[in-house]
Specification:
Mean pLDDT: 91
Strand content: 5-15%
Low-confidence stretches: none
Strand order of the largest sheet: 1-2-3
Helix content: 25-40%
Oligomer: single chain
Shape: globular
Structural class: alpha/beta
Order of helices and strands: HEHHHEHE
Length: 123
């Protein structure tokens, strides 16, 4: 905690399936979407603009010291491959990617510490 308080400058990447729903991270709750309605965004999730190398490079150039990435938000969707649920970016989407692995590796290549935001809430 001491290191984090002293670091002051970092990048928080708050991103997930909800970005494709053209809303904020609360879109499922705000619009009272059913699981079936939300599933269409999971089914279409390609993440074609996800570029962890570019983001990490930008953070390093800006003098940032760390990156924090949303591993799972309130929608319950995991942006990493996990055996605990198939509701994840590897098993449930056409892109079959582990975004946590990709961004963590990019951050470390650029000398940035890496942390995760993981919501315990699961709609």
């Amino acid at each position: 905690m001491h290191w984090f308080e002293k670091s002051k400058f970092g990048m928080f990447i708050h991103w997930g399936v909800y970005a494709g729903a053209f809303g904020n991270e609360w879109v499922k709750s705000d619009l009272k979407m059913t699981d079936e309605q939300y599933q269409k965004y999971v089914d279409q999730f390609e993440a074609d603009l996800f570029d962890p190398e570019k983001w990490a490079e930008a953070a390093e150039r800006a003098g940032m010291r760390y990156v924090v990435f949303t591993a799972k938000h309130h929608d319950g969707f995991c942006l990493f491959k996990t055996a605990t649920t198939s509701f994840n970016s590897y098993d449930a989407t056409p892109c079959k990617r582990d975004f946590v692995k990709e961004i963590s590796e990019a951050a470390r290549r650029h000398g940035l510490r890496f942390g995760l935001y993981y919501s315990l809430i699961d709609w």
